[in-house]
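Subject: design request, 231 residues
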């Protein structure tokens, strides 16, 4: 069990990715605009924050097309998702850095032997190269991505799946309330709470007043050292 300075205790931890571990939201926004602006479907950064942040790529493209009442075939949708993934890889080759404290916190939790997972609306091809770059590829037992679920956050499917896979991986039977999700968006908080998890929200993307449903809120993951105890 790990105890956080904010008084939270957990026997497993599930991290969101974008906006929690790394600041990739501006990079995703740039990739979307490169594809959507030539189609007359571009949107502002403010609109991205208000509407699109927290969506996986599939739902983001569907939302953009729905706004102008345009229809899109499944084949065209998959083509956009694939092209966006290529553009995103081009962008991240320019460099990526983690949020303050994120890498150290993940390493502390991993070194304590506490089960760790990622539950993200990003693609696995977006996540794994960044984890390699940050030296975190060995830390996560389970990674749930957009490819693994039918619905994106705020639907709780992604967190239910991550929780289930952690239990299977470690041959455990941890109740949901003994698992902590670390999130940065209202949609992510609703997803984690819907799966029965505790939630620590970090104000990387939204102000605290918009994250008030979380179990606890912090301005940064640059926290004092966590404690590891036997439950």
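Subject: RE: design request

Done. Sequence follows.
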């Amino acid at each position: 069990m790990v105890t956080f300075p904010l008084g939270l205790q957990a026997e497993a931890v599930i991290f969101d990715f974008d906006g929690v571990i790394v600041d990739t939201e501006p990079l995703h926004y740039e990739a979307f605009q490169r594809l959507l602006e030539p189609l007359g479907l571009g949107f502002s950064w403010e609109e991205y924050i208000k509407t699109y942040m927290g969506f996986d790529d599939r739902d983001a493209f569907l939302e953009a097309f729905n706004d102008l009442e345009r229809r899109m075939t499944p084949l065209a949708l998959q083509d956009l998702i694939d092209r966006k993934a290529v553009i995103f890889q081009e962008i991240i080759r320019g460099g990526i850095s983690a949020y303050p404290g994120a890498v150290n916190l993940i390493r502390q939790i991993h070194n304590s032997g506490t089960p760790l997972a990622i539950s993200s609306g990003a693609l696995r091809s977006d996540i794994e190269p960044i984890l390699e770059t940050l030296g975190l590829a060995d830390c996560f037992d389970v990674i749930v991505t957009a490819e693994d679920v039918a619905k994106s956050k705020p639907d709780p499917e992604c967190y239910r799946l991550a929780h289930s896979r952690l239990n299977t991986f470690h041959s455990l039977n941890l109740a949901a309330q003994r698992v902590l999700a670390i999130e940065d968006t209202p949609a992510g908080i609703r997803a984690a709470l819907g799966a029965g998890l505790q939630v620590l929200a970090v104000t990387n993307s939204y102000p605290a007043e918009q994250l008030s449903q979380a179990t606890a809120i912090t301005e940064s993951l640059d926290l004092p050292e966590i404690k590891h105890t036997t439950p």
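The chain is about 40% helix and 15% strand.
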